[in-house]
Amino acid sequence: MLGPGTIARVIRVAFVGKGGAGKSTLAGTFARLLARTDEPVLALDSDPLPGLPYALGIPVDDEPIPEDVVVPGPEEGPRWVLAPALDADTVVSQYAVACPDGVRYLQFGNLWGHVATLQRAQHAWSQVVRELDPDAWHLVGDLPGGTRQAMFGWASYADIVCVVVEPTVKSLHSARRLMNLSSASWGPRAIVVIANKVTAAGEMPAIEDRLGYPVSVVVPAQPEIAASDRLAVAPLDASPHGALAAAMQELVDHVSGLYPLAEEVAT
Ligand SMILES: Nc1ncnc2c1ncn2[C@@H]1O[C@H](COP(=O)(O)OP(=O)(O)O)[C@@H](O)[C@H]1O
Ligand SMILES: [Mg+2]
User: Fold this and answer.
1) Could you read off the pLDDT of 90-135 as tens digits, one per residue?
2) Is the CB of 167 under 6 A from ligand 1?
3) CA–CA separation, 203 vs 64, rounded Å?
4) For the whole model, what pTM was predicted?
């Protein structure tokens, strides 16, 4: 198990999957356990209906950056840009919310809560992830359900995409589509499949068979995880040594062990 200060390089992961599969629950728990290595972790939320704050252990579900942070761009340039006085690192240091274990949380999916502002949010988002000091933060992203954002590059900061799959027909169908991400233009360099809400070990061969891909981490179905959701307590706080914490620690170790990624070795 990784202890403080033992991660050699920056980890960039994004959690994808069908709505309700458990992306936010897993991503928030993963981010906090990663932060316990004493390294800076930035949780990036692009879901317009955010579930990540609760899993991180903060009592907010809407904490958008202020509206005047994003202004119209220059005539020949992008439609929207960060205000000239700001750069990506300043946006993070000023507006990312402090969470337990030292995680910082930046929300983009719900900027000012209106669909018309989505394009603005999208420009701000891509500028921040593009211009952020690439070595300053481990990045843990939580995407909305489905394939849309993932396929359109909202997760392009990620080296590794964690596909969260429940053992249901629809969830497996979503996951199979998301596996095609490896051929997307921005192509993640590794895909890690996590089976969530598994009720019996016997389900695993069928899941792997239907995905055509091995499952790296299994999270059992646990009524107390859903119960902590209803009580608005982060599952890691409700059950610090429970099955979810153990599985996400396993994922931290697994993901850390994937670095350096193949392409980096080659360069
Ligand atoms: N392993 C699990 N066992 C039981 N309930 C779970 C598990 N993982 C997630 N849940 C519950 O499933 C629901 C959806 O999880 P959530 O993380 O919000 O999914 P997503 O972000 O993929 O939409 C929540 O009520 C959550 O508490
Ligand atoms: Mg969610």
Assistant:
1) 999 999 999 999 999 998 766 655 656 777 878 888 899 999 998 8
2) no
3) 40
4) 0.93
